[in-house]
C-alpha cells in the first residue's frame, strides 16, 4: 500500500509539472563519457551488481547505462535483478543505487537512478545523479 501511495505521489507530481523535464532538470547528472573516465567500464553483470560494494557498482555503471538493459522494463525487474535500493530519488519506489567512494564528501556522492515513464511502471531512462544537491 505504501509503495502504491509513493508511486501515485510520484506520478501526480510528475504530471503536474509542465513536462516531467521541469522536475528532472533540477538535478545534476553525470554524462556517459564522464562516467567511463571516472570509474571505467567493467561489464554489467546483474548478479554481481546485486552483491557488490559501491565502488564495484560504479565500475559497472557505464556498461549498465550504455546497454539500455532496463529501458522499457518493469520496475519490479530492476528490484529483482539488482536488489533493494541503496540510494533515494524522490520516492522509495524509484530504484536508486549509491555508487563510488562512500567516504567522499556528501556533495560528491553519486547514485544510479532509474527514471520512470509517466505510467510509473516501467523504466524510461537510467542516469547517474549527484545524490546531494540540486543544480545551482
Notes on the structure:
The structure is a single chain. The chain is of the alpha+beta class. Helices cover 40% and strands 20% of the residues. Strands 1-4-3-2 form a four-stranded antiparallel β-sheet. The N and C termini lie far apart (36 Å).
Write the layout of secondary structure elements.
Blueprint: H1 2-16, H2 21-24, E1 27-30, H3 32-39, H4 46-51, H5 54-67, H6 75-82, E2 96-99, E3 110-116, E4 123-134
Antiparallel strand pairs: 1-4, 2-3, 3-4
Helix pairs in contact: 3-5
Low-confidence stretches: 5-9, 11-20
- State which percent range the strand residues make up: 15-25%
Question: Using only CA atoms, what is the Rg?
Answer: 14 Å
Tally the beta strands. 4
Shape, please?
globular
Average pLDDT works out at 83
Q: How many helical elements? A: 6
Strand order of the largest sheet: 1-4-3-2
Structural class category: alpha+beta
Secondary-structure element order, N to C: HHEHHHHEEE
Measured between the Cα atoms of the first and last residue, the distance is 36 Å
Q: State the helical fraction.
A: 40-55%
Largest sheet: 4 strands, antiparallel
